[in-house]
Each structure stands twice: as C-alpha cells, then as structure tokens.
Amino acid sequence: MKNRSCLTTIKQKYDALTHVEKRIADYIIADSGNVIHMSIAEFAENAGVVKSAIIRCCKTLGFDGYSELKLSLAMELSKNKQLNFVPYIDESDNVQNILEKVFSANVKTLHDTAEEISISVVEKIVDVIDNSNVVYIYGIGTSAVIATDFQYRLTQIGYTAICFTDVPSMKVSTLNIKEGDVAFGVSNSGQTTATIDALILAKEMGAVTACITGYPDSRITKICDYPIVISTDEIQYPIEAISSRIAQISVLDTIIISLSARHYDEAVDRASKTREFVNRGRYVTKENP
Hints:
By secondary structure, this protein is of the alpha/beta class. The chain has 2 domains: 1-82, Winged helix-like DNA-binding domain superfamily/Winged helix DNA-binding domain (Arc Repressor Mutant, subunit A, Orthogonal Bundle), CATH 1.10.10; 119-276, Rossmann fold (3-Layer(aba) Sandwich). Helix content is 58%, strand content 8%. The chain contains 14 helices and 5 strands. The protein has helices at residues 6-13, 19-30, 32-35, 40-47, 51-60, 66-82, 95-116, 119-130, 143-156, 167-173, 193-204, 219-223, 243-262, 264-280; strands at 135-138, 161-164, 182-186, 208-213, 226-229. Strand 1 (135-138), helix 9 (143-156) and strand 2 (161-164) form a beta-alpha-beta unit. It starts with 5 loop residues before the first helix and ends in a 9-residue tail after the last helix.
C-alpha cells in the first residue's frame, strides 16, 4: 500500500475535487471513526452517493480503491490517537491544552512528512545546490522567515545564496540569473503568485528550479523541476496554521546538513570560525589572533 495519510491527502487535494467528491470527502472527515467499519454500500447510502463515485474519489485521492482508503484511514486514526492529535483549538482551551495540541500537531506533521517525502527529490536538490553558482531564494509573508533562514544557513556553510522577500525585488533579481544557478521558492499553499512568477522567470533564464510546499497538486509544483512536498494535517487555529513551518525547517535542515556532510572538514572549520567571529566581534585567523 502507498505510504499515504487519508485525511491529510483529502485536505491537500480538496480544492481540486468535484462537487460529488467533496461530498464524499466531507463525509469521511466528519465521520472518519465510523467510515473505517463501513462497507462501500453502507458508505454510499449514508453519504447519499453512488458506489462508483466513491471508487472514483478514491482514485482521485491516489488510492487503488475503497479498501486501501479505509486501511490508510484506520492507520492514520491510530497514529493520531498515539500522538494525542486533536485537529482543532477550542475557545475554552487553557494554555496547557493548547500547548499539548500544538506540540502533538507538530510531532504528527514531522512523522507524516518523514514517511511520505520524496527522498530522491531531496537528494537531487542537494546535488544541484552543491554544484550551483548562486542560489536565489524566494518567499513572502510567513514564508519569508523560512526563506531568510535557509539563505543564512547556506551562506554559513560556504554557498553563495541571496534571499528576496518583496515582490519587486523578486522579479528584478531574475535578470541576474544564469545557467548554473538555482532558484528555490518557499510557499506552503503553493499558490503564491509572486513566488511562482519569480520561479518561472528564473527558469526562463536557465536556472534549475526547486520549491517546498504543502500541496502536491499546487501551481508551484507544476512549474518547478524539483518540488518538495511536506505532509501536514493542520490543526485548526483561529490564525494561520504553523505546524507546516516546523516540517519545512526540518527538511531544509536536512539539505543543509547533507551539504555540510559532503564537505565535512570545511564545514567544521567554518562553524568554528563563525563562533569565534560572533563571540569576539571580529574575524579570527592564525595571523590575527
């Protein structure tokens, strides 16, 4: 069976579903605990749809059929129970309740991402960055923080990386891109127009394009050479969800550490000099102790 989380997949693909498929998806989300025990005939009757529509919906979601979907759903519900994952914040929750829900959501996101991420794509991104001239990184809004951190970490281990977090600069920067450069976009929704436009322009200039997002069928995955898709069944906050950022940072850390491992001695030396530089306020060399 494919390593796929049913509820997470539904939320990632929901906007692309047909009207009938959304009805089926809504029913699964609303009564998932009972769905795992239902036959397809019972499901069809309870949801008010025909059995063939259920099969089509399963296929759309990436499952071979209803039985595989139910098995995935059962496994996901079991994992949620083990991790104490509750997919909502209630207005009556106190700080302790909220802390437990936030932490369990973050742990679940890390588990799901580790299980479902394409290692081959991550390995390819490590390769292209390692052989790049310049890495251009794009992200706006909440993604800007992730993009800026990635740029700093790359610079710290010896790569030339530039981060752009405002729309005009993102587009203008692409005029400087050449073959051998990498353009990397950060967009959890995968629909951020400015980031997508910058990546398209960068690709036209000869850059290899990559991104990190939370939605496998989003616009950004379609235009990038190497899209990384994290898996996040976001808790329902009264503000923008944040657990996806934990997974993004962890994946980008994996890239940074993989690059460091390829140039281990140099990375250790640079880390040591960076600590000395920060602690003493000036660059330290053997000639200038």
